[in-house]
Amino acid sequence: MNGRRSNNREAEAVARALGGFLKRSNPTTRLVLVGVLLLLLVGAAYLVWKQSQKPSGTEHASGDWYELHFTSPEYPTNKANYKGGLDTHLVRLIDKAKKTVDLADYDFDLQNVADALVAAKERGVQVRMVTDSETVENTKDEEIQAAFKKLRDAHIPIVEDRRSAIMHHKFTIVDGEWVQTGSWNYTVNDTYRHNNHLIIIHSRELAENYTAEFEKMFVKKQFGAKKDKRVPYSVLTIGGAKVLTYFAPQDRVAGHIIDTIQTARESIYFMAFSFTHDGIGKAILDKAKAGLKVGGVFETTGSKTKNSEYGKMEQAGLDVYTDGNPYSMHHKVIIIDERTVVFGSFNFSKNADESNDENVLIVEDANLAKAFKEEYDRILAVAKNPPKKK
Fold first, then answer.
1. For 60-384, CATH number?
2. Long-range CB contacts (< 8 A, 24+ apart) of 36-44?
């Protein structure tokens, strides 16, 4: 507020000075100045209008082969501001589908995404879905049931995992060439209350990797450790970036994450919704002991339990914090040397590694890493100065 009052006083002073100058000027000068002022006002109004057309719910970055978006949750939440979020980017992707949409999502209640899938089906696109049985069976949540009813009424086939471990994926493949993935579930809370990320990548080879995973679940009804281990392209180059694709549990993802951490030479930063995997925790602790700069933000819920890696890292003197979002910090991200990023649906836990259906990308790209580091800095700032709970 003090900053706003200061700006107002400065504006008033400028206005008084300008008014005095106009009084002392001849009519022609005054006319020219008034014209210039009108042009400036019109230009400022246009810039404000253009800014208002941008989605209000996300921070974003992009490259030649990807677009990356982050949520911008506010507290306390205001449903009047629930617009322009990650959901709009997924709807836009589905809306351009011409042949196929394959979707694997753990949690689902977004009505506009359901509408987009139905519209795709009605224009002749093949639409298929894989989800977790517990989500479908959640009859207490009317929004979940309403979203699934739209799909069923449109005769969109839905395959459930039907097991105690969870189908935790959050990805969509469009026309065999676009892949959307990340930490974001297709829900209102994940879109507007929780910290999440979504990435859309244009790559036929990456789409083949994700399609192979989808087919194992949808066609073969393989979930968890029963899934085949084949990935069409385990190592890809997309837009000059090295991209590794892993699926849990068949690829034993934790081992690959540990191997990646061990390549670090300067720094490691992470954001973790759930971090209980001792091997991943030890790999980071070892790098901190070796003198690397290490920082992390844990989701507050569960961080003080004996299974969390937070206590070990805090005791070791690492620069770690619990998050400041009163709802949830849902990222699962590790940034290495500000060049390599580990991200996806995979929580850093034994269940994610050995039981759940998960996907992870490990990408070597400085620009992508920079965008994730900026998100880390935002999350860290809120962790250090959290809003007061109401």
1. 3.30.870.10
2. none
